[in-house]
């Protein structure tokens, strides 16, 4: 398992970028504009440390995140998403968003922190029982 990033939601993208880039000194590594989903993802990291990323998620229609909803998730890259999810289930962990697509799953810590698990490399082919599973809760 390899740490990938921590995601936070931002209500004002310009202010967030001013803080993280101009004041804190992080560098923009990549940006994904997703018009169909109405959101922008921007990945930042300290200079020379591309493995210490923060993902800024800007949802175009949401401006106010009350009650700590601006913290999103921790993300880890895994060698075999199906094997890891099965191992977690065997240990009593609920898979909130099963890896139906062979690419991504979400679980939660005991303190309700979302953990995103992403398949290393290309997505695995859809496989049962994952392909037919529905979500078991909020990611």
Largest sheet: 8 strands, mixed
Strand order of the largest sheet: 2-3-4-1-5-8-7-6
Q: Structural class, from secondary structure content? A: alpha+beta
Shape: globular
CATH fold description of the largest domain? 2,3-Dihydroxybiphenyl 1,2-Dioxygenase, domain 1
Structural Rg? 16 Å
Indicate the CATH architecture of the largest domain. Answer: Roll
The count of DSSP E runs of length 2 or more, i.e. the number of strands, is 8
Number of separate structural domains: 2
Q: Percent helix among the residues?
A: 10-25%
What is the helix tally?
A: 2
Overview of this protein structure:
With 139 residues, the chain is α+β, with helices and mostly antiparallel strands. The longest helix is centred in the first third of the chain and has 11 residues, at 13-23. It has helices spanning 13-23, 81-90, and strands at residues 2-9, 27-34, 39-45, 53-59, 71-78, 95-97, 104-108, 114-119. The protein has two helices and eight strands; from the N terminus they run βαββββαβββ. A hairpin with a 4-residue loop joins strand 2 and strand 3 (39-45). It has an eight-stranded mixed beta sheet with strand order 2-3-4-1-5-8-7-6, covered by helices on one side. Helix content is 15%, strand content 37%. The chain folds into two domains: 2-67, 2,3-Dihydroxybiphenyl 1,2-Dioxygenase, domain 1, CATH 3.10.180.10; 79-132, no CATH class.
